[in-house]
Amino acid sequence: MAAYLLLLLYPFVFFTPNYRLTVTISSLRSNDGTVYVSLYNSEAGYPTDPNKAFRKAIVKIINRKAVAVFDSIPEGVYAVGCFHDEDGNGKLNTNFLGIPSEGVGASNDATGFMGPPKFKDASFPVRMNTSISIQMKY
């Protein structure tokens, strides 16, 4: 009897809902290159270390917009960082002071003071299928 009850409850006890996150990036200054999008589930590495991102995507630009879709995202708090790789070299170009010379963006359109934005300023909850928008800044 106990084994039968456990078998009936298994889907409810061990099921963790997952959601879809759609990120639309607009205000790109050209259709050249691609947009690198990093999704973080903690402040570790946000937004400058994509190796610490929870998920990553490289997306095409169409009509000066890019859309990244992340499936199977568990409920939680996340932040997105992205950059427009206009020249296709796979990295964010900066000037001699370290200031980006290509477009950058963050969820909540968060900006930093004398550096990149903080995770807490860019974070948002995912509790259902979620769509966010980011305006690329140059």
Q: Can you walk through the features of this model?
A:
By secondary structure, the chain is mainly beta. 12% of the residues lie in helices and 38% in strands. The chain has one domain: Immunoglobulin-like. Strands 2, 3, 5, 6 and 7 form a 5-stranded antiparallel β-sheet that branches. The model is unreliable at 2-9 (pLDDT under 50).
Question: What descriptors fit this protein?
Answer:
8 strands, mainly beta, 138 residues, 38% strand, five-stranded antiparallel β-sheet, three-stranded mixed β-sheet, Immunoglobulin-like
Total individual domains:
1
Radius of gyration, whole Å: 18 Å
Based on the structure, what is the oligomeric state of the protein chains? single chain
Overall structural class, as computed from helix and strand content, comes to mainly beta
Percentage of residues in helical conformation = 10-25%
Order of helices and strands: HEEEEEEHEE
Name of the CATH architecture:
Sandwich
**CATH fold name:** Immunoglobulin-like
Mean pLDDT: 92
- Main β-sheet description: 5 strands, antiparallel
Low-confidence stretches: 2-9
Output the CATH homologous superfamily: Immunoglobulins
What is the count of helical runs?
A: 2
CATH class: Mainly Beta
- Binned strand content: 35-45%
The tally of strands reads 8
